[in-house]
Amino acid sequence: MQWYGERSIESLSDFYKDYHRRLGRSIEHIRTIQMIKLATEVGEALQEFEGTHDYNPRKGTYGSDEKVAQELGDVIGTAMVSLFLFCSDPEKVFEDTVEKFHSRIKEYQEKEEKKIK
What we know:
2 domains
């Protein structure tokens, strides 16, 4: 994955910003559109997940774990493009988020170890 340069997350974000600006949309409008797109992508991932587990008797079983993974990839990609609309250093925000997740796991593991002792 490449954050900056050609064929990067930044270039995708720039494309979407430029497209919407040509249509006369403000940055707030562009952010709103992107957040709606993110929610839509999450919905599509959930729909595929629902289908692989037969949660909707009317629709039956459909889809696959591979399709769910593809939809989750769309969610991640859309979220990463969105980061460029909300902050000046999206790479740092993402790295900080991963570190936060690791810290939470470490805290959980430490609590579990105390319970064992």
